[in-house]
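User: Can you write out an input/output pair for a complex, sequences first and structure second?

Assistant: Here is one pair. Inputs:
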Amino acid sequence: MFQPESEAMPREQLEQVQLDRLNALLARVYDRVPLYREKFDDAGVRPHVETLADLADVPFTVKDDMRANYPYGMFAADRRDIVRVHASSGTTGQITVVGYTERDINNWADLMARTLACAGANADDIVQVAYGYGLFTGGLGVHYGSERLGCLTIPISGGNTRRQVQVLSDFDVTVLACTPSYSLLVAETAEEMGIDPRSLPLRIGVFGAEPWSENMRVQIEERLGIRAIDIYGLSEVLGPGVASECMEQCGLHVNEDHFLIEILDPQTLRPVPDGQPGEVVFTTLTKEGIPVIRYRTRDISRIIPGQCACGRTLRRIERITGRTDDMIIVRGVNVFPSQIEQVLTGIAGVAPHYQVVLGKRGSMDTVEVHVEVAPDLAFDEVRELEALQRTVRAEIASALAVSIDVKLVEPRSIERSEGKARRVVDLRDTEGV
Ligand code: DLL
C-alpha cells in the first residue's frame, strides 16, 4: 500500500476524520461559494453536521450547477491560488471547468500513486500513459501518480497507435494506462504489426474512463497477457483516483478519506441499503479549488458489503454499470450498454466491438445492436452468420429479459476510439426526416 495509514485505517477513526473534514468543508463552501450559501439558506441548512448521516439534509449539486457557474463561479479558493484547470469531456453542451490548488494537485498525485500501487505497480515499473493529456484529467492524473510512485513515466498521450505499440515494445513497458476499449485497439494493432502482445513485458493495465464488463476484462487480459485493473473517477470530483481496484479484482476501493460516497435511489434520492444498486453521489472532503457537496454523478453502482482480502478498510463499489444518461429503455426494460457487452463478449464468433444504435421506424423507436463478427469467421458463410445472429439474439434475450434486434457487421467496420468508446449511436433525429 502506498499510504497504509489511510488505506487501512480502522473504520471508526476514518469516520471521525470524515466528519471533521466534512465540517471544515461545509464552512468553507458556505463562506466562499455563493451557490452553496444560497442553496443552504434556501433549504434552511446550517453549514455544520453533528453526524455523517446529517449530510442527508444538505442539498445536492448537479452538473447544471457547474454549467451555470461556468467557468470559475464554483471555485472555493482565490483565483491566484488555483494552479491548474481541467475540463470535463462534456458530450453535449457547455464544458465544465474544475480548478486545483497546489495542495489539490499534491493530494491527487498521492491518490494516483495509491491507485497504481493498488493495481500492483511499484517503482520498478515503466508506465506508458496513453490517456489523453490536456483538459481531460486522464493523462496528467496518471502521470503525476506514476512519478509520485517513482515509476519511469512515458507521457505518450492518446492516439498514433502504431507508435504506441513501438514504444510498448522498445521501452519494455510494464504498465499501460488507457481506456479499456483503446487497449483492444493497441492489441489489434500490435498483431497487425506482427508483434504478439503476450510476448511483451507488459504486466498490468490500468483501465477506466468508460464502462466495461467482466467478460471484456477476461478478453483483454488474455489478449495482452496482463492483469487488467479498473480505475474510476470523474473530473467534477477529481479525475481518476476516486476509486480503484486492487489485485483481488473484486470491486473498487473508494478513497473514503478524501471522498464521502452515498448510493441513492435515483427516483426518491433516499439511500439504498448496502449491496443494492443506485446512483453514486460524492462529497469531496479535502479539495480546495472546487469542492463539491453531494454531487450527483449519474453513475450506477453498489457498495460491496464485507472486507477485502487485501487489508484495505476502504469500502468497495462494484464496477460502474453505466450512467443513467446512457440507459436505454427497451419496451419498459432498463438496459445499459455494458450489460449487452457482457453478453456479446461471452459468445464465440463475435468480436468485442459493438454499438447500440437507436433509430426510428415510423413513430416507433428502434434499438439494434451492431456487433462485428470475429476476424476468423468467414463473413460470406450465410448459414453460419444466420445461426450466429440467432445465438446473439437469444443470449441477449435470456440475459436481459428483452429481445433486441442484432446486426452482424464486418470485422473492423465499427469505429475504433483512442479515448472513450462511443457505445450508443442515436440516429433518431436524423432518420426518416
Ligand atoms: O473519465 C476520469 C478518468 C480518467 C477515470 C482516466 C479513469 C481513468 P470524465 O471525463 O469526467 O473523467 O468522465 C467521468 O466517466 O462519471 C463515468 O461515467 C465514466 N467512468 C470513468 N471511469 C469509469 C470506470 C474521467 N472505471 C465519467 N468504469 C464517469 C465506468 C467510468 N465508467
